[in-house]
Amino acid sequence: MGALLLLCGAGLWCLARRREGMLPVRVGRALLGDLAVLSYEIRTRRMPLPELLGEVLTDGLGAEVLWGPLSERLSEEGAALPRCWRESVRALPPPLGRMLEPLGALLPEGGAALAEAVEETREELTGFLREETVRQASQGRITAALSLAGACLAILVFV
Questions:
Q1: pTM
Q2: The domain containing residue 67 runs over which residues?
Q3: DSSP state, 59?
Q4: H-helix segments, 41-110
Q5: Count of structural domains within the chain
Q6: SS3 91
Q7: How far is the C-alpha of 100 from the C-alpha of 122, rounded, in Å?
Q8: CA 3, CA 7: separation in Å to the nearest integer?
């Protein structure tokens, strides 16, 4: 019974580590989709950012970690958009904040330059997501093997 509990504990620890490690990937995927919407709205509808934040970018993980806090900062602090953006992206898991921070300077201007920068950021984010997914899969296998080996060693010691 103790061996079973030990193996289950090792498995749960492994799952918790995997979930924790996948946070940047989950947030990155959500923001990748949101940036596509942002780019479309900028190019096609020319919708102002405050309206975008209030009407379009209101659901999902991206809204929870970036767009919601940005909207709150903008309503509290007024029109200091680059500063609000910088503070909002710094709260993102690394390296997502570093990738998104350059957009802050272009947000007040909007237009084609911002849409182009958003597309470049999306490409950089896509590359990061590919690499990080592969790295996390490899790391997950290593973590699972080590936790299983540690649990088996502990079982052998206790027997």
A1: 0.78
A2: 2-158
A3: S
A4: 49-51, 60-62, 68-77, 81-90, 96-100, 103-106
A5: 1
A6: coil
A7: 9
A8: 6
CA distance 52 to 37: 9
Q: How far is CA 144 from CA 13, 51, 83, 136, in A?
A: 9, 45, 42, 12
What tokens does 93 get? 């898991």
The pLDDT, as a whole number, for residue 29 is 93
Q: Positive or negative CA dihedral for 104, 107, 112, 113?
A: negative
What's the farthest any 2 CA atoms get from each other in the chain? 69
The residue-averaged pLDDT of 111-124 equals 89
- Cα distance from N-terminal residue to C-terminal residue, the chain: 12
Please name the residues in contact with 82: beta carbons below 8 A apart, sequence gap of 6 or more.
104, 105, 107, 108
Structure tokens, 35: 């940036």
